[in-house]
Amino acid sequence: MIRDMLGERDFAALKNTLREMNPVDIAEELEELSDADAVRVFRMLPKDTAADIFVELSSDTQQEIISKFKDAEIGKIVGDMFLDDAVDFIEEMPAGLVSRVLANISAEQRNLINQFLKYPENSAGSVMTIEYISFKEHLTVSAAFDKIRREGIDSETIYTCYVTDAGRHLLGDVSVRTLLLAEPDAKVGDIMNAAVISASTTDDREEIANEFRKYGLLTMPVVDNEKRLVGIVTFDDVMTIQEEEATEDFEIMAAMSPSDEPYLKTSVWVLTKNRVLWLLLLMLSATVTGTIISGFEDALATLPVLVAFIPMLMDTGGNAGSQSSTLIIRGMALEEVALADIFKVFWKEIRVSVLCGGALAVVNFGRILLMNHDAMLALTVSIALFATVVLAKSVGCLLPMGAKKLKLDPAVMASPVITTVVDAGALLLFFVIAKALLGV
Amino acid sequence: MIRDMLGERDFAALKNTLREMNPVDIAEELEELSDADAVRVFRMLPKDTAADIFVELSSDTQQEIISKFKDAEIGKIVGDMFLDDAVDFIEEMPAGLVSRVLANISAEQRNLINQFLKYPENSAGSVMTIEYISFKEHLTVSAAFDKIRREGIDSETIYTCYVTDAGRHLLGDVSVRTLLLAEPDAKVGDIMNAAVISASTTDDREEIANEFRKYGLLTMPVVDNEKRLVGIVTFDDVMTIQEEEATEDFEIMAAMSPSDEPYLKTSVWVLTKNRVLWLLLLMLSATVTGTIISGFEDALATLPVLVAFIPMLMDTGGNAGSQSSTLIIRGMALEEVALADIFKVFWKEIRVSVLCGGALAVVNFGRILLMNHDAMLALTVSIALFATVVLAKSVGCLLPMGAKKLKLDPAVMASPVITTVVDAGALLLFFVIAKALLGV
After folding, report:
1. Chain B residues with CB inside 8 Å of A212's CB?
2. How many residue pairs from chains A and B have C-beta atoms closer than 8 A?
3. Pairing with B261, which of A16, A277, A373, B130 sits 20 to 30 Å away (CA)?
């Protein structure tokens, strides 16, 4: 739409359209324009929404626009951003642009940004913003509304306000809903909710997302070591955190280094870099299974048909194990499964694996009997299969919990690692059982 | 905490504690009590929060409590629920209890519930609620506040209100923030936002969650076929939807039937049922690879060392393929990758696979040369490895997109299926290359 209007040079209509459109949609269309056009359109934006649109752009486009901006324009746009957005933006810029940006904003904003850049990655401090409304206890409801009207336009959310003492220590929260239903001369300290759920600046953002979901929160206050209110996390950031954390787990579980960038915006080089090290590591680990096979070469020479069952045993073991590991990893991420549940989990998986392994073994026995007409062979493979499923599911639930115990990310113990570990076990079981039953 | 107070029979203190605690935390503790104790504590709850706590309980506990309740108690607790919670609750109850519940609520609520039960699973209609506030256009801001004060206590969220015409058609939305900043005698029709993002009752809940995240929404209105406002979806439900949809994808991608229940609350029987069919299907598919191996038994007899490389080739192919399929499946779930991008995706994966496959082949060549001192063998395995990685990544990106094209869930084309498909290709490539280069 924007591209067409630009082509027709209908700038008056374009300006009107830009005023009506949602900032997110404008940003999406700006991404499709050439750099020069993007900057041109950007300068036509209504001054009060330019910053909202800017923060929705990809960092490549942000960089293009900023590098073409005059100093005053930079100061204006960054000055209009919410603090958390400004910090996110600066973190993605190259050093040269960062110093130009910092040189053109107010000393106060510069100090705040520098302070926020120090919070550890993925901590509450790194995702919070400081645009919230706070009251002192003795304030009346009508004075509170005056304050909301005065400051509200600049606050990221006005619907939950916070009550603090003279030392900025958090005392409670009060929602606009409560304020609306209260008498105008009531004191906020009397109607506030003192049992407020808060986070510390160093808390992990995934834990915060879990609390938001559990309690259905709109915002959560963040306090420092001395319990002083320093910021808030809002629900819209939490939705993004939830998706990013899930995506991260999907990627780690498929043996990749996690990445924040959308697939289509990631270069071939970065995609390769994120994948190749894990593939190498797993490839080299898989040579252990090769050594096991070499150790049983005599058995395979005596009964070559055994080789044909290796892929099925390995694949079934891998699948059975990754079913278990996936449920446990996901359960721990959502805090539905705790380390203390390890015996409960193990006992459950043992019973499930006996049932699954039994069913598979019976079907497999029938299939081999039908196709190979060799009951002893069918029995050998089926016993090996049953043992493999039980082994795989045990490993599949224990490895992620062990990783958690060692303070590693449980997600690394997913399908690829389980497969590599279970392969070796499955082959050993297979050969030992074959030696015992078939005398090879 | 509740258990201890119950043990000490300190009921006055317990009642006080129940008044202070968060409903979610009370529900969590009720789950740990015996059924009789849970019912006893439940009857001590403040009347205005009992329904909030009830909807947080697991369906097992809900069933226990309801079955011990008198008719009047049932009517009261269900009558106090938000409509979407009442519908969720009734969907999980056995038929006998459902009819008892429906017999004890008002005719109006019964009709609404019956109507909501008809919306398709996972549709906007099935997750929306009807507790919203709407205004007519000509209403003044001060009259709007009066209406919010009157109805607000019963509305799931009051912060975004909706403007409709006489026929209940949606005209726009207006936030409490806008109302607070407006003149008391302004008309809501003049200050409302007409560019409101809405959903239709039949829209998929995953799409709605994506819109919430994209636009940072607090609520979204839901309209019927005639564009009449029939309900709203709120951000707290969307957080749950996001997690449930991600969990569903994790489960499908690990070859399981998806389930809503937390792991520890799922019985061994249900866990087995969710897993065993997929395992069986994949096990039977994996026998294709067995047939391929049998077809090349002569080659293996001539050069038994080849067998030792089969697990490494299969595992690496599986891992390389599931890296690609995971990124594409996740990208499509988040609407970052569309079907129209198929050529872009394929070309990207080809380049990545050439780089990854090349690196793996070089390392593998070195390793085999070092351990087996056979350059031709090393070359054979490395070429097969390279070809396997390219094949795996092509299959890994094309299968999920193909599934989407066929209107299947792309998540079924994850690791287990890719592994099964790629195994056969990897073995064929390996044997054909070995025949050509080693003359076996």
Report:
1. 239
2. 339
3. B130
